[in-house]
Amino acid sequence: MAKKKIIRKKKKSGLKTGIVLLTLLAFIFSLFFYMVFLRPATSFDLDEATILIPNKKAQKVYVKPIISNIIKPVQFTTFLALADIFGYWDDIKPGRYVFKKDASVFTIFRNLNSGKQTPVKLTINKFRTKKDLAEFVGEKIECSTADLIKFLNNADSLAAIGLDRDNAMTIIIPNTYDIYWNTSPRSFMERMQKESNKFWTDSRIDKAKNLKISKEEVYVLASIIEEETNDNEEKPIIASVYLNRIHKGMNLGADPTVKFAVGDFSIKRVTQAHINATSGNPYNTYKNKGLPPGPICTPSIPTIDAVLKGVKTEFLFFCAKPDFSGSHNFAASDVEHMENARKYRRALDSLRIH
Questions:
Q1: How do beta strands 120-123 and 176-179 pair?
Q2: What is the structure's pLDDT at 17?
Q3: If we measure between CA atoms, which residue out of 227, 205, 203 comes closest to residue 216?
Q4: Residue 349: enclosing H or E segment and its boundaries?
Q5: Residue 19 falls within a domain, yes or no?
Q6: Which domain holds residue 106?
Q7: Is 14 part of a structural domain of the chain?
Q8: 27-45 burial, b for 16+ CB within 10 Å, e for fewer?
Q9: I need a surface site. Which of 170, 239, 256, 305 has the fewest CB within 10 A?
Q10: How far is Cα 244 from Cα 224, in angstroms, rounded to an integer?
Q11: Is 192 a domain residue?
Q12: Are 79 and 105 in contact (CB under 8 A)?
């Protein structure tokens, strides 16, 4: 019996020793793994650092020095080992990568190797022309302003995604979007098209049908209203004026469209000279019936929805109030409108605004 107890004690002792050794080995391995892969490896002092890898320069000779600038020398050796083992240099993923201070080698390598980019937050507000939009986007992502303008003006490129030069801007819905830095002009427009399709719900499309105009025409009309006023309460009423004029076959006579035709939105007072000078321009709604062929800016969502409200009025005219409050006087008759316009012109003359 004594011998059996001794044997059992030896077995228990050996088992405990084995567990201790395994625990020690696991600890050593964990410590090694942490020291090599998981400990802070960045060499910069700011809260974060950004690496930009252009499509045309996704090569080892270009990328390696950039990465070495953000990783401490000792940990960079580990990065090089991982890059060689997993073939990173043969398949470098272009893009924008943002790393927080104290990121580990493992995090840096994993994101770069898998192409896990940090998107750019692109906030699109009001832009009046394709050039304005292209200049803004060209400053935020890799594709140049010139490349985006070229795409927006190329009939064949636009046709490939179901657009044309007139309606291309109607898919731009002002909002904030996460966009990958290395997005191409076509990919950018396809993304905007996707967002536009999401915006135009069945409910919004049905409202446009009730107004007897297309969603593109709603957008164009909203762009004019966006330039007419900042007063959200007046926007549905102004929309009703223009819709009434369209349905009666009257010219819209919208001053902002003349400013767009002239190419100068700083004009304080649209004159007959401006109207005559742009008589051949399709955006001049004093000379041409109906809506212009495209939008004159990218209208806000509230302005688009103001058109879709479908407010019913008898108004055919509106004129800015002479107190320059930004509000308008509305009229159903020509006589009433002429009196409102006379008061406004007198106010402009008193301030010598020409």
A1: antiparallel
A2: 66
A3: 205
A4: helix 334-350
A5: no
A6: 48-114
A7: no
A8: eeeeeeeeebbeeebbeee
A9: 305
A10: 15
A11: yes
A12: yes
Task: Give 32-64 pLDDT, tens digit per residue.
Answer: 445 554 588 899 989 999 999 999 898 999 999
Q: Quick one: tokens of 15?
A: 């088992």
User: How far, in Å, CA of 245 to CA of 287, rounded?
Assistant: 14
Judgement on whether residues 211 and 301 belong to the same structural domain of the protein: yes
| Rounded Cα gap, residues 334 and 70, in angstroms | 70
Question: What angle do the packed helices 301-308 and 215-228 form, to 10 degrees?
Answer: 110
- Answer yes or no: is pLDDT of 93 > 80: yes
Q: Could you tell me if 268 and 292 lie in one domain? A: yes
Domain end: 140, 172, 199, which one?
199
C-alpha atoms less than 13 angstroms from C-alpha of 267 in its C-beta half-sphere: 20
> Number of structural domains, the chain?
3
How does residue 31 score in pLDDT terms, banded at 50, 70 and 90?
A: very low
Three-class DSSP category at 289: coil
| φ, ψ for residue 50, nearest 5 deg | -115, 135
pLDDT, position 66:
95
* Residue 274 φ then ψ, to 5°: -65, -40
Tokens of 129: 């022309």
| Residue 54, domain member (yes or no) | yes
Residue type, 86: F
Counting Cα atoms < 13 Å in the Cβ hemisphere of 148 gives 27
Q: Are 108 and 146 part of one and the same domain?
A: no
Residue 330 dihedral angles phi and psi, to the nearest 5°: -110, 150
Count of residues making up the chain: 354
What digits encode the pLDDT tens for the residues 175-230?
999 999 999 999 999 999 999 999 999 999 999 999 999 999 999 999 999 999 99
pLDDT per residue over 99-108, tens digit each?
A: 999 999 999 9
Distance between CA 225 and CA 232 in Å, rounded? Answer: 10
| Cα 59 from Cα 164, distance rounded (Å) | 37
Output the pTM of the full model. 0.86
pLDDT in tens, 234-272: 999 999 999 999 999 999 999 999 999 999 999 988 999
Among 114, 129, 156, which residue terminates a domain? 114
